[in-house]
Sequence to fold (250 residues):
Amino acid sequence: MTYKTDGSVHHGGVKNEDQTVRILNELKIYSSAVEKRGGTKVKEDAVAGDQLISIKRKEGITNGSFDWFNTSAYNDALGDTFTHFISNMRELRQMPESLRSDEQFVLKIRDSFNNLCELALDTLTSAQVTDILRRGLIDANAGFDVVINDTKTSELYKFSAVQHPAVDYISKGYNIVLKGNGKSSRMVYFVDADGNVYDCGLRLRVTSNNGINAFLGTSKANRNSQVVMKLQQDKVANLLQQVGADVTVY
Fold:
């Protein structure tokens, strides 16, 4: 981390982007006023003049992960893996709800879906994953600052998205290898020409956005579900060290 500054402003229990924006302004992290954005039509959570900002909230940077994307936008890489499953779900929706809600039936459908997720991940090529990361991590975050609000320690971490190690690895043409035993997730490793392996904490998932019950039309919360690809950032503390994030205490 490049510097640490104690600020006079203290906010207990920061819970949302509004409060993070307020802290950014009160501590004058940016020379321009930070304004909240967000919503379904824009990716940025906030802006400071022309600077785009993505805000992440963590209760301790050593805990859990955060998402870089969670979308169906890159499903072209999955080919027709889920075509029959989606068609079958449309047909199953015509069955009585009592049958679609049966616990054993739902478990069977969930197992089938998980097997397809595993197949999808196992058949992705290095070139396909590289393209997904270039589109979803690099291009989608071009020009962004990432601000991580650690509400456990009252610290703000800031770095430019272009500093992510994956940007450098991909620009150097490193191959990508997916590893892991989970049905729906794989760790993303980069391998250079000499066989050296680099881990920057990325995890790729193929899953559904609303679950199997929504696929079957029995969910009370969601009318439907779809296949999505999710890129998670694990090992957040390690990433912040790698990028030399600026950290400010509030």
In short: Helices lie at 17-26, 83-92, 97-100, 103-123, 126-138, 165-171, 212-215, 236-243.
